[in-house]
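Design a sequence for this backbone.
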């Protein structure tokens, strides 16, 4: 019918149609240059009627796929390193998520599911209203959102393909084996059919039946989920042919185990149940050993449960919109990881105080754990990042304005009330009052800490941990930096220059 030349350098990676606007989009991976070592790309938009070029927008990733949400409010640029959520009009980044080979917006929420490759198979990472991570066997191929909620995933098992249904919360469901003939997966909701399509043709598969579960027979005094006693339990096999069968005496299991909390009752043989009255259903259980279990319930309450007594204690009411993916239990802290908000809630076991820490990389993390020294480790893209939380109580009246760690490893803290604190090994060792707000703390070439205080009349530069006399400077000095000779370079905000205070003058 016609041709449209596109004047953009690079390799086209996908040709798609925006279902909400009808626009034709082409994603392009631009070649890497010496000036731009990181991958980049562009999104080209064509008019669906005239097929003429409308816009070419540069983006900071090399997209292999463009994904649209059903409302036309967001798009995803999918690359192996990062998945970027953008505004579809301006392509301004709205969020960054872990990279993968494919991604999809959920049909019934603001959640995003990302399909990526691991060293041993595939992983589905769910981020948003629901947060979960699920590992699958086989190489990742494609993922689709199911209209009833959840996702369908196609993986390559070498000799065949496999389609697996996944719940909205990341729970694996039914699966079916298919002849792998392509790289695309779609779902027909009316017929309940998956279609795998490619150059070799198409394969249609329907997942039918229920997942078979092997459940032990309930104990004679157990109750069914509806609350009534279980009756008429059929034996697993009919009795043998002889008409006379020796019946052994019935040995009933004890109602409770002395090693379990008093409220634990027998559910079936070897399995007990402990109900927690007036509490929400547990949603996320903490990872860690010891006599206390940590969990978040359906009301977003962070709770500690004594495994001996069965008593549960609410430690903190987390924000209602928090989406906790995991709870990491350390020696002195418990960490609740909120992936949706890129936030960590740190609970001090000594004081039970909760600190909220915003970390932009949390949402992009694949996994997190804590080591015995209370250091959190995050897996982000191809990096492992560490976060150490220290709880030090300072008798301060002002807000902290600056902090440095000197050559001895001491933490020096200044406040806007003119307070100066020195903390060594998490213990407050000294404090002082300077009389004016601390603007900045800086280290000289020997690793010694210096403070800079100021008011409307003068600025003072002085050593933080010695009794040497401070130096009075003009009030226009706005900041300090020390060179290799320990000369102090003092920024003068009223002119285009610096004062330089040599060590002899100080």
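Sequence:
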């Amino acid at each position: 019918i016609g041709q449209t030349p596109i004047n953009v350098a690079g390799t086209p990676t996908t040709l798609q149609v925006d279902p909400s606007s009808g626009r034709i989009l082409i994603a392009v991976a631009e070649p890497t240059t010496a000036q731009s070592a990181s991958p980049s790309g562009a999104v080209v938009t064509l008019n669906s009627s005239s097929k003429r070029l409308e816009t070419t927008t540069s983006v900071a990733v090399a997209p292999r796929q463009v994904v649209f949400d059903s409302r036309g409010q967001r798009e995803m640029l999918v690359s192996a390193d990062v998945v970027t959520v953008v505004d579809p009009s301006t392509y301004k980044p709205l969020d960054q998520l872990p990279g993968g080979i494919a991604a999809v917006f959920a049909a019934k929420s603001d959640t995003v599911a990302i399909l990526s490759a691991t060293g041993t198979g595939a992983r589905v990472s769910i981020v948003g209203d629901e947060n979960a991570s699920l590992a699958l066997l086989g190489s990742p191929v494609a993922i689709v959102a199911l209209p009833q909620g959840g996702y369908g995933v196609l993986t390559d098992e070498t000799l065949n393909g496999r389609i697996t249904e996944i719940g909205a919360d990341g729970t694996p469901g039914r699966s079916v084996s298919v002849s792998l003939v392509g790289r695309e997966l779609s779902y027909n909701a009316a017929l309940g059919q998956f279609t795998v399509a490619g150059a070799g043709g198409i394969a249609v598969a329907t997942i039918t039946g229920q997942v078979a579960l092997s459940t032990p027979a309930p104990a004679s005094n157990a109750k069914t989920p509806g609350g009534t006693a279980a009756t008429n339990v059929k034996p697993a096999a009919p009795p043998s042919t002889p008409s006379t069968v020796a019946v052994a005496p019935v040995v009933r299991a004890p109602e409770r185990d002395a090693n379990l909390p008093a409220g634990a009752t027998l559910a079936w043989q070897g399995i007990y149940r402990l109900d927690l009255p007036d509490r929400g259903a547990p949603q996320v259980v903490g990872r860690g050993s010891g006599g206390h279990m940590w969990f978040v319930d359906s009301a977003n309450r962070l709770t500690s449960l004594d495994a001996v007594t069965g008593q549960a204690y609410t430690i903190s009411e987390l924000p209602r919109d928090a989406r906790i993916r995991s709870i990491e239990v350390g020696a002195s802290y418990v960490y609740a990881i909120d992936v949706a908000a890129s936030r960590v809630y740190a609970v001090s076991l000594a004081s039970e105080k909760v600190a909220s820490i915003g970390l932009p990389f949390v949402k992009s993390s694949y996994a997190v754990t804590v080591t015995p020294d209370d250091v959190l480790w995050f897996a982000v893209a191809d990096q492992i990042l560490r976060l150490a939380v220290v709880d030090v109580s300072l008798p301060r009246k002002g807000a902290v304005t600056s902090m440095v760690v000197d050559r001895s490893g001491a933490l020096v803290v200044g406040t806007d009330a003119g307070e100066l604190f020195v903390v060594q090994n998490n213990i407050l060792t000294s404090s002082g009052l300077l009389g004016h707000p601390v603007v900045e703390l800086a280290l000289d070439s020997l690793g010694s800490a210096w403070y800079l205080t100021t008011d409307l009349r003068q600025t003072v530069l002085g050593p933080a941990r010695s009794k040497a006399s401070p130096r009075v400077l003009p009030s226009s000095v706005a900041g300090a930096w020390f060179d290799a000779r320990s000369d102090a370079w003092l920024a003068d905000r009223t002119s285009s220059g610096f004062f330089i205070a040599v060590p002899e003058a100080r």
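The CA atoms of residues 367 and 379 lie 5 Å apart.
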